[in-house]
Amino acid sequence: MRYVQRTDYFNHSQLNLEKEKYLEELKEYFSKEQYVRPPKYKGWVLKEIKYDLFNEFEHKCAFCETIVEESISVVEHFRPIGGARRKNGQVDNAYYAWLTLDWENLYLSCIECSKYKGNNFSVANPGQIMMPLKQLREIEKADLIDPCYFDPSQHIELNDRGLLEGITRIGQETIKVLKLNRLNLVERRLSKITELFNYADLYVDQNDPRAKAEIKSRIEDLVSAKGEFSGLLAKFAMTTQNNELRDSIKFFLKLQVVPASVIKRTSKSLAELQAFNSVYFDYIPINQFHSISSIEIKGFKGIKNFRTDVRMLEGKGACYSFLGTNGLGKTTILQAITLALLGAERLNNLGVKAKSRLGLNAKDIIHRNYKEARIKVSFSNNELTNELLITRSENNQNQRVTIFGETDFSPCVLSYGSYRLAAKSQLKDNLSNAMGFRIQSLFNETARLNGIQGILKRHKNRNSLLAIADILESILGSEGVKFEINQKQKLLIKRLTNNNEFEYINFDVLSAGYKTVVTIVCDILDVLLSVDQGVSSLESTQAYVLIDELDAHLHPSWRLKILQAFRDAFPLVHFYVSTHDPLILRGLNEGELLILKHDEDDELVAITDYPSLKGASVDQLLTSDMFGLQTTQDIETEDILQDYYKELERVASESSDSNSIEIIENISPPKELELKSNTGLTKRERMLTRLIDLEIAEHRKDLYYSEWSKESIETLFEKAKSLGMIDDI
Fold first, then answer.
1. Bridge-partner residues for 76, per DSSP?
2. Which residues, other chains included, contact 594 with Cβ-Cβ below 8 Å and sequence gap of 6+?
3. pLDDT 10s digits, 1-37
4. Least crowded by CB within 10 Å, which of 115, 123, 364, 516?
5. DSSP 519
6. Kind of pairing, strands 593-598 and 604-607?
7. Which of 258, 238, 227, 236 is nearest to 164 (CA)?
8. Is 277 left (phi over 0), alpha (psi -120 to 50) or beta?
9. Cα torsion 85, 91, 95, 100: sign
């Protein structure tokens, strides 16, 4: 971490214009003395500003100083813009929405630091709502080092093992919250230290002036503003006990000059913090949420062996989707993840009846070819692991299952099956009302959810009801359904009629799709309102939510936007869903799709290398290798194409010495395809179509072949160019 001198950015007209409009919207909201769910900024300017932040922070994360690329970096708000989590678990939901578009609150961050930082922001003296950033910095006494306001080197030091050490309490808290001693960071910092020592030794031993100048240049690059970890590396070089290193570079080492005013206010801040009782720091909670980095399953139910990595993505939350044909194991994977997230201790505390309802004592919980099942879910670049070992007794008359395991992370877990039936009244059993997890319906299709009945019975204060109505309307409002709370603290539902007027209706008359969404959202809210600090923390509550067949019962218009609606309603929640629907996929970001297939050895694998699909049409998705259809016209055309590709594949495999032009000249597409204009209108088009058909046929069994990849497009282009079908570009 290093001090970064910010540039003046008042000349960015679009940022300032958007900021003024958004602040007016917030002022109107706060004037009504509402603070629970301030309106969010939904413009585009933050995406555009990332390029400017790259220049501002020298292409480095503001916190860990790793060099980042655009695809693996985020625009981070130093002061969170909603749900700031304070000491003792208190959450200030309105803080600091008004700094959303404040240039000096925008930082460049790597994805990992952003995830670990989350909404944690403890302060000694909270400022007032709408207070300018300059005043907040002076009075709040934040427990995180602001690298654009204080000199980090007065709080943190780098030692010769690559570890960061907090020399003040605020330095220690910053290292702890951001996990700045992550294994990958320590290894890279140690590599830079070794490199610095080696260059210093070479510099001392070198007599050639030109070689000496080159070594000097490389040392200066290491500790310059653009160098990775340069902020603390430079200080380490000048304060190390290694006299040779220090003496060899002190004459030309160009340390970054920290303004005297920054040093002065850092020293003043340190003195003021000493006046606070140290107990203040001891009770700062770190609400770190860990992202899944890998999943391993062996011998669990129908899955023999499965492993996949999960990409850490931009943003605090995420929505991952498993896609695959029926029977591949999507539901089983969600069940395995659920059990691993719960951990052995929580599972063993459920009791015999609860385990039975979850199917944990069933004969098929362990694959028939295995004596035990293993499930391993790793988090945060595999630094933490939840692992389960499931065994059963050898006695065939007593299929008793035993669960062992180690649990490094115990998050809130909610898992839902494909039926998601709403209860008619509040459920009483412990499993359905468990706080910290709700998983029954994923394992038992007859299980019912508390849904709207449970949440209205348990949460009766007006603020909670208003938040529930607000979230339900944010998800369903565009579908002509509104929710409101009357004077008797009752939740009322209104539906838009054909006369363009709203009428009050009962929950029971809603369609199956409406009921499904209302039920699952209410069940999620029921848990989140109970396990955390109530309504004020909804936007900062972190959990895992797993949903099987998310598209079930939903109208196409909902399928298209349901994932984005969930992201907006629960910004810090990590969703894992399964689906068969292409419209659901269009709500995914790059890296969030995991396509399940069997490889040549009949092992289940996940293909994850897909771009964002938001611009793709439904037909494009259905006829891609994701779904495997050859056409969406009719079943006859599908069968004709399948037979045609099989024949092309056979001829290509038997004609290894033949070139592409001979093969496509010898095999003509079926007449039925020509009649449907699937083969081109001119000879040139027909020849090019045959070449494409041959490319498809040759890769029919290639599990990792993707028409979306750059390599596939380049290969096809080169073939067409070599055959004279297209000109060079």
1. 107
2. 308, 310, 320, 321, 322, 323, 606, 607, 608
3. 899 998 876 567 788 889 999 999 999 999 887 777 7
4. 364
5. H
6. antiparallel
7. 236
8. beta
9. positive
